[in-house]
Amino acid sequence: MTGTTSETTPQTQASAPGGLVKDVVTLDRVVIRLAGDSGDGMQLTGNRFTDETASLGNDVATLPNFPAEIRAPTGTLPGVSSFQLHFADHDIMTPGDAPDVLVAMNPAALKANLADLPGGGLLIVDSDEFTARNLAKVGYAENPLEDGSLDGWQLVAVPLTSMTTDALTDSGLGKKEAERSKNMFTLGLLSWMYHRPTEGTIRFLERQFKRKPEIAAANIAAFRAGFNYGETTEAFAVSYEIKPAPMAPGTYRNISGNQALAYGLVAAGVRSGLPVFLGAYPITPASDVLHELSKHKAFGVRTYQAEDEIAGIGAALGASFGGALGVTTTSGPGVALKSETVGLAVMTELPLVIVDVQRGGPSTGLPTKTEQSDLLQAMFGRNGEAPVPVVAPRSPADCFDAAIEAARIALTYRTPVFLLSDGYLANGAEPWSVPDTGSLPDLRVEFATEPNGTDAAGDPVFLPYLRDAETLARPWAVPGTKGLQHRIGGLEKADGTGNISYDPANHDHMTRIRQAKVDGIAASLPPTEVDDPDGDAKVLVIGWGSTYGPIGAACRRIRRSGRSIAQVHLRHVNPLPADLGEIIRSYDRVVCPEMNLGQLSLLLRAEYLVDVHSHTQVRGLPFRAAELAAVLQDVIDSTGPEVPS
Amino acid sequence: MTTHPIDEHVHELGMPAFDQRIADAVARSVELGGDKQTTLKAKDLKTDQEVRWCPGCGDYVILNAVQSFLPSLGIAREDMVIVSGIGCSSRFPYYMNTYGMHSIHGRAPAIATGLAASRPDLSVWVVTGDGDALSIGGNHLIHTLRRNVNLTILLFNNRIYGLTKGQYSPTSELGKVTKSTPMGSLDHPFNPVSLALGADATFVGRAMDSDRKGLTDVLRQAAEHQGTALVEIYQNCNIFNDGAFELLKDPLTGTQWSIPLVHGEKIVFGPDGASCVVADGWGGLRVAETNQVDEAQIVVHDAHREDPAYAFALSRLSHQDLRYTPMGVFRSVAKPTYDAMMTDQLEDARSGQPADLDRLLHGSDTWTVEA
């Protein structure tokens, strides 16, 4: 069953599950893609399989891929939704370049995904759905299950729909309703094929349909029927085993990026001792952060679904003025609307976390797809000189730490901070080593409680723009604090007093000091990690955000081929780490792969006057590791001879 | 779970972590600076900043009225916050010795909502103008009103853009000749009171800048109202729209054309009470000659009427040229406030399973890898 991307030879052993003699093949990794209609429940099925797989101890990476339309016309190409997951007995970095197994629930799903399945790959289709009508909808003149066009793959046509309804004849459900459980039948079959534990899914279904026990029972029955079918049918002669991946000791769970990000914000509230206030307007793919945070009111998290993006950030800033950790969540178009308020936060120097879960752009773009094209918007998308720190997570689970880091900067430096996640991180999932909460950063800050200066007459006064010598942060005096009444706003402030000032020298000074404050954050950052295991690499690859997985996987391939390459992945894009210039100068070439047209490359060139080799792609999907490895290899080979390690 | 120092402190006080640090800072400031002072004088509310409105601007009158009236509420000045947008009126916070934020054009209600929703202990005010609240900020205004956040909104209506030097505003009368409309404006104006009532505002009032007594009376009722209170204040811009409200200010015509609203009293106005308000038979109201109707037909003003249609009908009596303009409190009804309901939800959530970060992060499905 090895696809072209599989890397080891399967080991076969005989076994006898369910009385039938079936072989069990041990694999080191598998990539499965589930594809169906938007209404077929492929995302749910994928998520369940992911949870089963993670709990078994495999390393997992997932790539949900769905259309922006909630229900495109049934059975059409635009309505196809898919979920790819890669699981292995070792540490993996991406959801896989191409599937080894494709499950197609209808002709549209087959047509939209077949090109990605390497020759010889396993193809499981629901034969019930290959009706003349469904075939015509997507332009198949002949039934591909019968015309030999699928001979290059291991085709297994299974009547998934009718077997599901057969299994549910006694459930009391109508045919249409019973058919809806076919995704659970499929999940059962896959669970048998890959020796996945089933208890978690049964528990999940019981929980999910607590108020509709008949639906829960039907789904569980379909799930079990699929499992039993695998065990007894002759259509599948082998099942597969993927041993747990060796992982560092600890307690693990499966987590998606948006969930991890929301947890990071809750944790930031706990570790700062401040109430979290989220002002947000629903937008794909960021809404799940709002949904998740709205569940955690017991932690003092206030969530406010505003009338628009501008009100979302406005309310968050108002809450920050009152002493909360203000947060707003959005995606690219929402950032455009929020820009003016980000500028006000720069001017008023209040803490604020702006979460941008990037999607394909410009304009409405590709709402459900991933891209990294908001970096320059986050950097420069405001009027005036309005520097804002930018922090980026590198993987779904890393969204937790990145959110805490964004909150640390916002609170310590009294500044708005951009947290740039993206659609791939948001919906993708991976195992997460649950941290010891006591070891999380201490984010406490002191509110101002007494005057910090004197006026001309020598009387004590509060100077809202008197700065901390080290961080250049201004004091945070919350309303209610006696004697510290002050007015802030968007007009230029006089240094110290914060009164309105149109003085030319003051404006020049304040502009530079706001910049210096943000630049100074670099002093609080740890040394940049350079992954250069051979120590003799001439080429350095620099990335940021969700490209970490594909770049890392590409670097492994390069190293396996006997070449050397160094990798740096940036957590902080603004300010850049203080040691980055020196690191860059110690390599002959710098390559920067990005899911945009070269935005970080532009910044690196401007900052370090270095001829960055920019490699870009904006397909709405993550890089493929193999393609990226080829690009890196070309750069290495054109950089001059190297001694094989 | 390793107990965070904050948690220990919080556990001692039996208070939730999230509000305690704010309360601590406030308590510390009182410890250092003496008790909160709730007996203020007007001068206590002045700042050292020079007031920079044009000489003769109606804003001065309103500022004086507000500074004179606020002390009577018995609220310490550090517990008051004034949030404004952009425009002449929005400079207001700089002249008030309270907490304040001069924010962005149109966005003050949004910013104030975040503050009021997270700090129900504060008295939060919004100062805005006709352009700020009704043009660029129209969306925030109507949504704030329907949510009923505990805010008092003072809408200074001068029917003109002053800070940008004289373009027509969303309350300018149709056909207004201004710098941007040399042949007269083409858009029909908003009636701010009608708009607010359409958004189901729980408190709506209207007052005149120069009428200290009437203004103070409406402001007091607005300040005491739980929920969003909108007060439209007619304000003269003596530079770009001088005399805009002269019809209502002039002692002679003012009596004739303004309709004072007093809760519980018959709506009678005009010289010698010659005019009155009666039902029009179509669900609305109309003006009638007092001596032409039965006394029983004259409407008795009821600001507490639940159905906003009555107050709306009152607001529709006035014309663009300000004839038959009701002044006073149109509507004042009690409804739960957004911030109180939000606080209740937080308390409900807390009274269930206590917040435990460790438990949250672990979730329900974990597995352990042994060393």
How would you concisely characterize the structure shown here?
By secondary structure, chain A is α/β, with parallel strands linked by helices. Chain A is 34% helix and 20% strand. Chain A contains 20 helices and 25 strands.
The most extensive contact between chains is:
A-B, 82 and 84 residues
Helix content of chain B: 25-40%
Radius of gyration of chain A: 27 Å
**Strand-residue proportion of chain A:** 15-25%
Provide a count of the helices of chain B.
13
Major β-sheet strand ordering of chain A: 12-11-13-14-16-15-23
Task: List low-confidence stretches of chain B.
Answer: 1-17
What percent of the residues of chain A sit in helical stretches (DSSP H or I)? 25-40%
Explain this structure.
The complex is a heterodimer of chains A (645) and B (371). With 645 residues, chain A is of the alpha/beta class. Chain A is built from 20 helices and 25 strands. The longest helix of chain A is centred in the middle third of the chain and has 20 residues. The two termini of chain A are 33 Å apart. Chain B has 371 residues and is of the alpha/beta class. Chain B is built from 13 helices and 12 strands. Chain B has an 8-stranded mixed sheet with strand order 2-1-3-4-6-5-11-7, with helices on both faces. In chain B, helix 7 runs antiparallel to helix 11. The two termini of chain B are 20 Å apart. At the A-B interface, helix 1, strand 10, helix 9, strand 11 and helix 11 of A face helix 1, helix 2, strand 1, strand 2 and helix 4 of B.
Which helices and strands occur, and which strands form pairs?
The complex is a heterodimer of chains A (645) and B (371).
Chain A: E1 11-15, E2 22-27, E3 29-37, H1 42-55, E4 59-65, E5 80-88, E6 101-104, H2 107-113, E7 122-126, H3 132-137, E8 154-158, H4 160-167, H5 175-179, H6 182-193, H7 199-208, H8 213-232, E9 238-242, E10 250-256, H9 257-272, E11 276-280, H10 287-293, E12 302-305, H11 309-321, E13 325-330, H12 332-348, E14 352-358, H13 375-380, E15 390-391, H14 398-413, E16 416-422, H15 423-427, E17 429-433, E18 453-454, E19 460-461, E20 487-489, H16 504-519, E21 539-544, H17 548-560, E22 566-570, E23 572-574, H18 580-585, E24 589-594, H19 599-608, E25 613-616, H20 625-638
Parallel strand pairs in A: 2-9, 3-6, 6-7, 7-8, 11-12, 11-13, 13-14, 14-16, 15-16, 21-22, 21-24, 24-25
Antiparallel strand pairs in A: 1-2, 3-5, 4-5, 10-17, 15-23, 18-19
Helix pairs in contact in A: 1-6, 4-8, 6-8, 7-8, 9-10, 9-14, 11-12, 17-20
Chain B: H1 5-13, H2 17-33, H3 58-69, E1 80-84, E2 99-102, H4 108-118, E3 123-129, H5 130-136, H6 138-147, E4 152-157, H7 192-198, E5 203-208, H8 212-224, E6 229-234, H9 246-249, H10 251-257, E7 258-261, E8 268-269, E9 275-279, E10 285-289, H11 308-315, E11 325-332, H12 338-351, H13 357-362, E12 366-369
Parallel strand pairs in B: 1-2, 1-3, 3-4, 4-6, 5-6, 7-11
Antiparallel strand pairs in B: 5-11, 8-9, 9-10
